[in-house]
Target: prolyl oligopeptidase
Amino acid sequence: MRYPEAPRFDLVEDLHGHAVADPYRWLEDDADPRTAAWSEAQDALAADVLGSLPLRPAFAARLEELVHAGAVGLPAWRGGRAFSTRRDPGQEHAVLRVTEPDGTVRVLVDPMALDPAGTTTLDAWSPSIEGDRLAYQLSVGGDEESRLYVLDVATGEVLDGPVDRCRYSPVAWLPGAAELFYVRRLAPDQVPAGEEQFHRRVWRHRVGSDPDDDVLVHGEGSDPASYFGVHTSRDGRWLVVSRSVGTAPRDDVWLADLTATSESGPAPLRELQVGVDAQTSAWVARDGRLWLMSDRGTPRGRLGVADPADPATWAPEAWRDVVPQQDGAVLTDVTLVDGPDGDLQVLAVHAVDATDRLSVWAADGSGRLSDVPAPGSGSISGVVSRPEGGTEAWIGYTDYATPPSVLRWEAGSGAALQEWERAAVAGAVPELTVVETHATSADGTPVHLFVLSGTGTPDAPRPAVLYGYGGFNVSLTPAYSAQALSWVAAGGVWVVANLRGGSEHGEDWHRAGMRDRKQNVFDDFAAAGGHLVAEGWTTHGQLGIFGGSNGGLLVGATLTQRPDLAAAVVCSAPLLDMVRYELFGLGRTWNDEYGTAEDPTELGWLLGYSPYHAVREGTAYPAVLLTTFESDTRVHPLHGRKLAAALQHATSAEAPVVLRREVSVGHGARAVSRTVGLAADQLAFLARYTGLLPREDASGAPR
Model:
């Protein structure tokens, strides 16, 4: 295959005694005419290769059905109103609705009505305590910049906004809906050049006023890469502020009594947890107690209570346990409900081997009351209840064949879950069997796998896709996936690996796959691939590996460390140059996860697996499809460019190395139709190079 010409420059830098070559540094510059010309030539190559894939039309047709399955979000109850999102088959984006006390349903925010081109996304939303106002955030073109607006729920009138620089901003309302707390970056002219995406602060804002007049609440002097959380109690008395630096698995937490004053004005925030290597979520609930969900000394999580007015009770040893740490289970979410006799109870979610369980606990700390049978082996996206109290709770649920839906639970109802709002399934969902198994990693660690197929047994080796992530405390629990279902429907096997670096087994599992132990993640993934071959599910020549973002790093490292493992690789929105990743996008916020090249020891970790630096000339690399997004403000597309150029130069195999890029699309949410095109290319590429052949239905037409 003839690849676009990419000059290799003899650029070698001495970094802490390491000679680090970077022949494609010029591809980092979006504005360089050489980068533009090379990218356009790659576009032509990608169009030629992907356009001729035999199964692309069939995958596009099936995905067009399955990806349009609906999705329903959990309701947020405020003042008798229920706010929730819903996407029905045929809709490009979910709409935000309100259900009135009389049952009337109205759409409040429809991204497609705002932008028929489909490039506007609804990033976040938060109704006021009384339910009469709504704060919501929009981004355009994939930039994830989140401009903040406020509307009147009754009339739909926009009362405030856009307030810019609100990316990753939580919102906490005060009673009366005249004021809110939120997070906003400093203006570009107030920060050093190149740091415009950092320097967040917590502000107090009066709706309708100039945001430049907002009151600074917290954040001055913090690390520029700090992220903040805000939470107010329903009575407006208590404010909780949290802070983490980048994605570090630790946070600081402060608490303020907004009704108290000092000689200098409002009472200051008081330290609840500062400088501790742990994560703690804190809030004051309707019972007036300070609730704390934490992995501090309990890596699988515990839930305790303290007195918000008495700092002597804030130390972990003084907390009263309500849900103590459980063996083999990770606490992921809780909500408060009233029992049938008026006693306060906790509905808790625990993950066991990446599958969620529900249980009920007495809020006085006297222990577990009951278990709640789940509808299947699936994931619970969250549990909510009415802030003012009540016996009902709502549970977000999905599994590999069920789109995100909502269930209802009534305390004292015999623990039965009832359907509340089910998302519509679009198209014919194939028969699906899920088998759970374990691979053994290089150091003997068992690695849990979900194996999805139409047979449930490895009756004959067949083309398989192994998917993973392995980082940032992200747990890959069962979830509806049009890609997975389309692959299984075509006769293949789809496998999800629960690697170290995730949260499947708590914070210890996360830390076993980060920083100097990142290699464990790649070893886990390679072991998963070997296990699938050994058990007869597939062969190395029929195996494809797939990952995106941090998962793109995963498959990039696997590709360069084990080019013999798989026949095809799909690497999407990836991190690949681990020496320079901190210099672009949000890279510097991830150095607690990976390490920093500024430190000699940590540079050694990064060079030990950095895919771009591990490419070796004359190696027979498998077929590789790299997909990047030009509006990606998290992971810069330079990573995909540089590895594509390096692999195209180095590979001795006939299998292609293809770079597919999109414009006006970012790292996160996108319109459904954009998803179909991308997924069809990815699956068809995997099919072509793992040997997945067209199947025929009863009429003889390919499907």
